[in-house]
Amino acid sequence: MNNIENTIAKNLLSIGAVFLRPQEPFTWASGIKSPIYCDNRLVLSAPRVREVVEQAIADTVKSKFPEAQMLMGTSTAGIAHAAIAASILDMPMGYVRGEAKSHGRNNRIEGRMEPGCKVVVIEDLISTAGSAIEVVEALREAGAQVLGIVSIFTYGMKKGLDRLAAANVVNYSLSNLDALVEVAAQEGYIDAEWKDRILKFRDNPSDESWIK
Three-state DSSP class for 41? Predict the structure, then answer.
């Protein structure tokens, strides 16, 4: 676990952006029961944590994608993070809608993006990666050269990793589930015995044996 993963995990836990409830699981829209729920929108209303997260996004873009020319946020959760990081980097930004507008110019991509522009997608959370890949595909269809994704947090689910690999997309997350459960156990958010059970959920979400 590196320093930034540890720092971001601590910050997300400190503001309640990550809920760990292994003994009373959340139910996702798919029906899968989960011991974790992540709401990174709460970062925006916590100035100290927001400063840390947005600087880390900007630093990651600069170090991993030094040739980047523009940031593109995912709609809606990635928009604010892309805007703040772009301001730090003095870089253009835009965002990609879930679907094209039904009026006006019928835009799906907002912001002036020239063909061939080298773009980094900013996402708040990677789980199965479906929505992030849709954004990448929309940008590619519009002529962008998508360098990759920078996200705040990833569960590290196999389905998401496989989808990203199949779409030839690299993702750099500031923190991840492995770092989070380690910090959560150290700081008393969960009992240490739950670390392996939560990771077991991550590795096979449809298998509910971790609950027992």
Answer: helix
Q: Give the pLDDT confidence of 59-108 residue by residue, as tens digits.
A: 999 999 999 999 999 999 999 999 999 999 999 999 998 665 434 455 78
Q: From CA 120, how far away is CA 194, in angstroms rounded?
A: 35
| Reported pTM | 0.93
DSSP 43: G
Single out the residue of 81, 52, 48, 47 nearest to residue 149, CA to CA. Answer: 81
- Could you identify the residue written with the tokens 């779409």? 167
β-pair type (109-110, 93-96): antiparallel
Residues linked to residue 33 through DSSP beta bridges, in sequence order: 27
Contact residues for 9 (Cβ-Cβ < 8 A; gap 6+): 18, 175, 179, 180, 182, 183, 184
Q: What is the DSSP string of 148-193?
A: EEEEEEE---HHHHHHHHHTT--EEEEEEHHHHHHHHHHTTSS-TT
